[in-house]
Write a structure and sequence with these properties.
With about 300 residues, the chain is of the alpha+beta class. It has helices spanning about 5-15, 20-25, 80-85, 130-135, 175-185, 200-205, 220-230, 245-255, 295, 300-305; strands spanning about 30, 35-40, 45, 50-55, 70-75, 95-105, 115-125, 140-150, 160-165, 185-195, 210-215, 235-240, 265, 280-285, 290, 300. The protein is globular.
Length: about 300
C-alpha cells in the first residue's frame, strides 16, 4: 500500500464496515439518478487551508489515472427539507482525487469480489465555502458525488526517474503517481516549495523511499530545479498556475526543449459542471486556442500549455 498510514486507514475502514448497523445504511452505492453515494471512512483532516477526506466508493467507479481527477460534491442539503430550502447545494464543489486503493470483499460484505474502493479526496481553497461542512462530517456519514471527471497524472511507459514538484497544499495530489513509480521499482524525488518544514503527519504519509528536498526561497528553488530536472525522465507538478511559465522556460534552458509528455501539470480553475458545458474552466493553450479543464485536464501536458 505504500506506507503504514495507508494500512492504518484501511484497517479503520474495515472496523467501521464490520459494524452490523452500517452495512445497509452507509454502504457506498451508485444511485438511480447516476450520482454516487460515498461513505466517509475516517475523520476528515482540515489544516486551515485544505480538507482531506477518506471515503469508500462502490466498485463501479473507475480507478484509472486517479490522481488529479475530480468529483463534484453536493455540500450540505442531504435531506429533502434542506434541498427544498437551501439553494446553494445546486452548485457543486470539486474534490480532487489523491490516492485510491481497492477494498477486499472481506471488509464488511458477504458478496463475492470487490466491494468498492477507498479514495482520498482533497478540497482545495476553491471549495472554501464548503470546507467547514466537509470537515465536520462524522465517520459513516454519506456524500453525494458526481464523477470522476477529467484527466489525472499518468506515468509514461519508460519512466524510471520521477521528479515531483509541489507546495504543501497540493502535495496530496501527487501521492498516487509517486506510489505507482515506486511499485515499478523506480526512483522518486520530491522537491517541496515551502518556507516551513514538512509536518510529521504529512511526512509519515510519504512512502519511505521518496527522496525529499525542501526549498525555502526562490533562489534555493531554482538551484535545486537546475540539479534535478537534468536527470528526470518525467516531471509531475502541482503548484500555482502562475509558476508554470517560468518552469517551462527553465526546462528549455536546461534540456534545450520541452518535450511532449515530459512534464504534467495540475491546473487549478473553476469546475462547476464537470462536462464542459458551462465553459467556466477554459484554459489557454500554446497554439492560441482554448480547452476545457474539466474534460482535457485538470492535469495537462506542460508542452501543450506553453509550447516546446
Amino acid at each position: 500500500m505504500g506506507n503504514f498510514w495507508i494500512r492504518t486507514m484501511i484497517a479503520e475502514t474495515q472496523q467501521q464496515k464490520e459494524k452490523p448497523a452500517a452495512n445497509n445504511t452507509a454502504m457506498p452505492t451508485l444511485n438511480t439518478d447516476g450520482t454516487i453515494r460515498a461513505t466517509v471512512a475516517a475523520p476528515p483532516r482540515h489544516d486551515g487551508v485544505t480538507t482531506l477526506l477518506t471515503v469508500a466508493l462502490p466498485p463501479t467507479v473507475s480507478q484509472s489515472a486517479a490522481g488529479g481527477r475530480f468529483f463534484l460534491v453536493r455540500c450540505g442539503a442531504q435531506t429533502e427539507w434542506e434541498r427544498a430550502t437551501q439553494w446553494s447545494f445546486a452548485l457543486r464543489r470539486p474534490l480532487f482525487a489523491t490516492t485510491v486503493y481497492p477494498l477486499a470483499a472481506a471488509m464488511g460484505s458477504d458478496a463475492a469480489g470487490p466491494v468498492g474502493s477507498l479514495w482520498e479526496l482533497l478540497a482545495l481553497p476553491v471549495a472554501a465555502d464548503c470546507q467547514t461542512w466537509l470537515a465536520s462530517l462524522p465517520v459513516e456519514s454519506t456524500l453525494n458525488l458526481l464523477g470522476p471527471f477529467g484527466q489525472g497524472f499518468a506515468l509514461q511507459p519508460l519512466t524510471r526517474n520521477l521528479l515531483v514538484l509541489a507546495d504543501l497544499a497540493r502535495l496530496p495530489l501527487l501521492l498516487g503517481i509517486m506510489n505507482q513509480m515506486l511499485d515499478r521499482n523506480g526512483r522518486v524525488t520530491l522537491l517541496l516549495k515551502s518556507e516551513l518544514p514538512l509536518a510529521a503527519e504529512a511526512r509519515s504519509r510519504l512512502p519511505i523511499p521518496v527522496e525529499l528536498r525542501v526549498a525555502a526561497d526562490g533562489e534555493n528553488w531554482h538551484q535545486q530545479l537546475d540539479e534535478t530536472v537534468r536527470w528526470a525522465d518525467q516531471i509531475a507538478v502541482a503548484l500555482p498556475a502562475a509558476s508554470y511559465q517560468l518552469l517551462a522556460n527553465l526546462i528549455r534552458q536546461i534540456r534545450f526543449r520541452l518535450e511532449s509528455n515530459f512534464a504534467q501539470a495540475f491546473v487549478e480553475t473553476d469546475l462547476p459542471c464537470g462536462v464542459g458545458s458551462c465553459l467556466a474552466c477554459t484554459v489557454p493553450l500554446a497554439d492560441g486556442s482554448l480547452t476545457r479543464a474539466c474534460v482535457h485536464g485538470p492535469v495537462f501536458d506542460l508542452a501543450t500549455l506553453y509550447g516546446k
